[in-house]
Amino acid sequence: MLQVKNLCKSFKTGETVQEVLKNVDLTVEDGDFITIMGASGGGKSTLLYLMALLETPSSGEIYLDGRRIDCLKQSHIEDLRGTSIGLIFQNANLIASLNPLENLMIAMKDGKSKLKTKKKAAEQLLSRVGLSEKKYAKTTALSGGEAQRVAVVRALVNNPSIILCDEPTGALDSSNGEKVMKLLLELRKETGCSLVIVTHDERIGALGERRCFLKDGVLNEVV
Ligand SMILES: Nc1ncnc2c1ncn2[C@@H]1O[C@H](COP(=O)(O)OP(=O)(O)OP(=O)(O)O)[C@@H](O)[C@H]1O
Ligand SMILES: [Mg+2]
Fold first, then answer.
1. Which CDD domains match (predicted)?
2. What sign results for the dihedral spanned by CA atoms 80, 134, 194, 28?
3. Which residue of 46, 201, 214 sits with most ligand 1 atoms within 8 Å of its CB, as the best mutation to test the pocket?
């Protein structure tokens, strides 16, 4: 369970202070599928980055399974990210010099498992998303949809309990976007992880089992 309490975030640019998030409360229960919609500039990405501990809140608290995590040391944050929290962005952000298989293997945090075991796990994941034949391909030669499918399984390599997605289909055409959404929903079912998707696409927003709107920094859930 990931819990955000009374979260505020302001950015200071020169003399002006912009309040981007205002007292946001959100509890992501295990297995939840939540969509967060809202107009551009409303603070969606900021909220997601705070939940992923990529940004620090101006005030408020974040808890993971009851443990406060917003004031952890950087090394502990990096452990959590990946093992407990998986991240997917609009662009796949794969490492261009590594092939898809290596991109998955390098994201695996369990230092103890053998290379062979990691390779097998990575192969299984690529096969799961229909990319077995591309495992040694040049990452830069993958299509946008293929690269994003690799990014989706990369977010899952360490079996996180929650996956945070910022406009995961934003850079894809509608057919590839649908494929990636279908994949995310199937993987959520298979793994039992919770899924939080930030989007300005109403069709994706409507899929959420819990739907939230972020407007001018204020989060409201549709009840
Ligand atoms: N690092 C930063 N420094 C200053 N201002 C920032 C920073 N990050 C975000 N902002 C501002 O916070 C506001 C919210 O930005 P955010 O990226 O969270 O919006 P968004 O809802 O994700 O928009 P979009 O749908 O366009 O992605 C914007 O006005 C933005 O300029
Ligand atoms: Mg955004």
1. ABC_MJ0796_LolCDE_FtsE
2. positive
3. 46
- 192 Cβ closer than 6 Å to some ligand 1 atom: no
What is the span of the domain harbouring residue 153? Answer: 2-221
What is the CA angle 86-91-97, rounded to 5?
90
Distance of alpha carbon 136 from alpha carbon 132, whole angstroms:
9
For residue 143, which of 195, 179, 107, 106 has the smallest C-alpha distance?
Answer: 179
Burial class (CB in 10 A: 0-12, 13-18, 19+), 5: middle
pLDDT per residue over 126-180, tens digit each? 999 999 999 999 999 999 999 999 999 999 999 999 999 999 999 999 999 999 9
Q: What is the number of domains present in the chain? A: 1
Q: CATH no. for residue 195? A: 3.40.50.300
- Between CA 47 and CA 216 the distance in angstroms is 12
